[in-house]
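Page 37, top half.
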Amino acid sequence: MNDVWPQDQHDKWGRFGLWLHAGLEAFSGEINWMKIWWTNKNPRLVAKFYLDTCRRIGGRSLYPTFRVTYNYCMVGIPIITQSDPGTENNGVANAHTMIRHRLDPNLTNTLQHRFATGHNNILSEIKWSVFRRDFSPGFEDMLEQGVQNGWYDANNILEK
C-alpha cells in the first residue's frame, strides 16, 4: 500500500464555478482526498491536498528524534506520485520528490513523480467515471435548481 498515488482534476462542474481534485491510492483504489474548490489549477493548493493527506494517514517519524538517515522512514508517504502533466500538479511533484530525497539520499537527482500523458492515468479516470455515474447527476440537478431559482450565482465569488 502507498506505492503509487495517482491524482487528477475534474472540470465538469466548471459551469457552477466548482472544480474538483482527487488523489487515490492505486492498488486499493481508496480515495485519499476529493476536494471541491473554486479552482483546481493552483499548484500550492493541490500540494496542500497532498501534504494534508500524508499527515492524516500518518506523516510522523517512526523514530523519536528527527534525523534524515537511510533508516529514516515516514508513514503516509507514497513511493511515487502520478498525475497528468498539467502545471497544477508541479507542486506535488516537487514536494514529493524533495520528501523522498530527504528520506533516501540515494534518490538524489531523480524525479519521484510520474507524469502520465493521455489516458495513462487510468485509475483516476475510472474513479471520475464512477463518480459521474453514481453521484454527479443528483448533485448537479440540485446545483442547477439553485442557479435556475436564483439561490446560487456561480459568478459571485462569495457564493462559491
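Page 37, bottom half:
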Amino acid sequence: MKLVKMSDLFTVSYGNKLDLNKMSKSKNGVAFVNRTGFNNGVVSFVKEIEGIAPYPAKTLTIALGGSVLSTFLQINPYYTGQNVAVAIPKIPMSEAALLYYATAVKANRFRFSTCGREANRTFRSLLVPRLKDIPAWVDGSDHTMFDGANAPFTAASKTSDAPKKYGLFTLSQLFEIKKGRRLTKANMTVGVTPFIGAIDSSNGVTARIGQSPIHKGNTISVSYNGSVAEAFFQPYDYWASDDVNVLYPRFEMTAQMALYLCAVIRQEKYRYNYGRKWHLDRMRESVIRLPVCGRLNEPDWQYMDNYIKTLPYSSQIS
C-alpha cells in the first residue's frame, strides 16, 4: 500500500475561525463544528451569516487543537470555529471512502498526544492510503446501518409522570447477591462466554472464554474491587471474576429497569474510594434511593422502565 499526503487527495484549509459566543444560535440553523471529539464535532446550530457561505456537506473537518485530529464526515453544511481544518475531496468520493479517510487521519492522533502539541503546521502532509488502495470492503459496507440508533424507544416526555416521592431500599431487599469466582488468565480457554472483570468499560467484559457460564443473564454485575461500584446489566449468561458481585433480582426485571438501577448503584462509588472495598456483607446492607408508588411505598418499577425508554438510544435496548 502506497501512502500519499492528504493534500494530494484533498484541498485542506483552515476553516471559518468563527467565535460561537458572537453568533446567534438556532435549532434549525447551520451546524457549528468545533475542536471536540464528540457529536461529530458539532457543538451547536447557528443562524446563517450574511456574506459567509457554510462549507459544503460530504467534506471532512479536522480538529487541530483540543481533541487533536478528531476527524468527522459532515453530512450537512456547516461553519467551523478556531483551529478546525476543512478537507474537501479533489475527486468524487463515496461517503464510505470519506469515513475511511476520517479514520486514517484519526490514526495519527498519537503523534500529537503530548505537551499540548497541535497539528497546525503538519496536517496537510499527513500520510494516508491512495484512493485505489482503499480495501474493497469499505465501499461494500453499509455505513447507514446505525442511522436512527439515537432515537428513544418512545416519544413520551421524561417528566410527564415524574415520581412524587422516593424511598430507601437495601440491596438485599431487591436482590439476592452472589460472588464471582476466580479464574486466572493461565487457566482461561478461548471461547464465547463473556468474562466480567472489575473494569469501567465494555460492559465489564474483559475476555471471551471457553469455560461454561457460572451466572445467569438478566442480572447486574457490580465490581467491589478495582473499579469499585461499576454496575452493568448482563443480558447473557457469563462468568464473573472474584472481584465482582452479581445481583439476582427478586422481582421481574426488564433491561430498562436494570439500566436505571445500574445508574443508581454507580452513585454509591464515592463511598468506596481509598481502598475501602464494597465486599459482600457491605453490599447487602447498602441502601439506594428509588422512586416509590402505592400505599405500601413499593419501588415504582413502571416509572423506571418508562423513564429509560424516553432516553436517546433507548430504541436499541432489546
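Margin note: The helical segments are 6-9, 95-106, 136-140, 171-174, 255-266, 280-285, 301-309.
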